[in-house]
Structure formats: C-alpha cells, structure tokens
Predict the structure.
Amino acid sequence: MTAAVDLTAPSSMRVLLSAEQIQARIAELGRQIDEDYAGSVVHLVGILKGACFFLADLARAISLPARLDFIGISSYGKGTTSSGEVKLTKDLDTSIEGADVLIVEDIVDSGITLHYLMQVLKQRGPRTLRVAALLDKPSRRVRPVEVAYTGFQIPDEFVVGYGLDYAEDYRNLRDIRVLDEPPAKISPQH
C-alpha cells in the first residue's frame, strides 16, 4: 500500500502561466497556422506524453482540415534534466510522405530530443516539416532546432502542468507552474 501524496498544489510551486494565458496564446497560434497552411491539410504529430493537452487544444484552434498522430520519444526518464540518450517509444501510425507535418511539442529545452526527431521524420519524406512548441527555453539549447510556432519563451526553471510532468506527476494541472523543489516521493510500505 502506498501512502497518499497531495500532488495538486505543493507549497514549492508557483504559477508561471495561467490556464487563461495558455488558451489565449493557443488561439493566436491556431489563427497563424490557419494562415500559413491555407488550402492544405495539416498533419499534427504530438510528442507523447507531454504534448497531448497542447495538441488537443491546438487542433481545436485550427479551422483547417487536420490529421492527428502521435509519436513517443524520450530523453528524460524520471529526472529533471535530459539524459542525452534519445529513444523512440512509439512510432507514427500513418505515413507522412508528401504531407505538411507540424510536430507539436510541449517544451523545447536542450533540443536533443527534437533535433533527433526532426532527423528521423525528414527521412520519411514530408512535404514540409515544422515545429509548434508551447514552451521554449532557448537558454538551455545544446542542439539547434527551429521552432516555427512558439507559445511562450520561459526562463530556465523546471515547469509542470498542462501536460508537463515530474516523474509522471502534475500533468493534469490546468496551468503551468514552476516546481522549485520536487516533493520527496513516499516509497511503498509493506
């Protein structure tokens, strides 16, 4: 049996971006994508798991025909910084050859994961390949990546909520919060 831990609002968190700010910016991004992809079908590829909330809201903010797919890729594991080792955990379900592909990412940090993914997807022959990221931390970049649509540039702080997690916790928070100090995990009791 595991003791319960209150994960809803630890005192070590502060709101960085409110749910209202996030939704307003996503509406703006949707309008820009509609303009840029006018007359096209946009293939939104969400990076699991973190981008699922952003992908759902962005897809609804776009009025163009859109197709959705997901890819799983990781370089974090259970830590707060990238391990540098990238692995594909789930591949696309459909071909992107000849498609206008928009990778939907929750956060661009070191760029290691996204750089790797861009190389993999370019080999599959999309007509266009761009990135939409809700959050961008350019100060942490170690690999070059171009983000066509950025929700917010943020400082070098560890954030959770709206899909972003710490060891799989906090994804369901409606806003984005800074996690100043991760809570101590309570181990199972026997």
Remarks:
- DSSP finds three helices and nine strands in the chain.
- The CA atoms of residues 161 and 176 lie 5 Å apart.
- Residues 20-154 form a domain with the Rossmann fold fold (CATH 3.40.50.2020).
- The mean pLDDT is 88.
